[in-house]
Write a structure and sequence with these properties.
alpha/beta; about 35% helix; Beta-carbonic Anhydrase, Chain A; 2 domains; carbonate dehydratase activity; Carbonic_anhydrase_sf
Length: about 190
């Protein structure tokens, strides 16, 4: 039996037993927050517990490294929608120690992709099309600096009002301890 089959079988029972009722809430975050976090599996349940948030409290956006890599990409669009359409009043960027994006280099990732059938021709075509794969597929050296960069990109975005605090934190994926990197209440839009 595949994972997909198991998921669909479980889901049928989940719906029939009305287990979804315990998760009913609205699309508006009760705590008026949007969190950008890493997709790391260790944070799935740890991050909400460490931040004292539950289902319905916040909007959570996840990607590799909790990074805003492009000012007009889907992460930034999601943050803007959370603020103006879904009534989030604060933004939190939460990176973590021992992140897979730390010291990630495009060359290593591209070599792994080739083992899965991605050809040199495909990589060359993307490069000739103006895609900077080296930059796009490279991580960071310091999680603290990465969090600061993402906070800065959000805070200084032309569509983010200066009255929206943007905070930066780093979580320990082993203990859940949060370290404050940027206090959005004490920093101004530059």
């Amino acid at each position: 039996m595949t994972y997909l089959s198991k998921i669909l079988e479980h889901n049928q029972q989940f719906v029939e037993n009305k287990e979804y009722e315990q998760y009913e809430t609205t699309k508006f975050p009760d705590k008026k927050m949007v969190i950008l976090s890493c997709m790391d599996t260790r944070l799935q349940e740890l991050l909400p517990k460490a931040m004292n948030v539950k289902n319905g409290d916040v909007k959570i956006i996840k990607n590799a490294g909790a990074m805003v890599s492009h000012p007009f990409g889907s992460i930034m669009r999601s943050i803007i929608i959370a603020v103006y359409e879904l009534e989030a009043e604060e933004v939190y960027v939460v990176g973590h120690h021992d992140c897979g994006m730390a010291n990630l280099h495009a060359s290593s990732l591209l070599e792994k992709s080739k083992k899965h059938g991605i050809t040199d021709e495909t990589v060359e075509m993307l490069t000739h099309a103006g895609i900077d794969l080296k930059s796009w597929l490279t991580g960071f050296d310091s999680v603290e600096e990465s969090v600061k960069n993402s906070v800065d990109r959000i805070k200084n975005h032309p569509l983010i009002s200066s009255d929206i605090p943007v905070h930066g934190l780093v979580i320990d994926p082993g203990t859940g301890k949060l370290e404050l990197i940027v206090d959005g209440f004490n920093s101004s839009k530059e």
